[in-house]
Amino acid sequence: PDGAGKGAAKSLVSDEVKKMSDEDITKFLASNPKHASANKALTPEQVTAVISHIRGLEKK
After folding, report:
1. pTM of the model
2. Domain regions of the chain by residue span
3. CB-based contacts of 14-23 (< 8 A; 24+ apart in sequence)
4. pLDDT tens profile 5-22
């Protein structure tokens, strides 16, 4: 997967996401009702890993 987003999924490599700080992404994951259950299940280390993965996709 390249993170480009298909269907209803938004792109993880868009200019909008690239401009977001890691803190902004963390807040988005925590406050977005679509991601609330997943965020509760993730440890802070896992959230950091998700953000690192997104940043890695941006470089490809």
Report:
1. 0.69
2. 15-59
3. 17/54, 17/58, 18/58, 22/48, 22/51, 22/55
4. 666 677 888 899 999 999
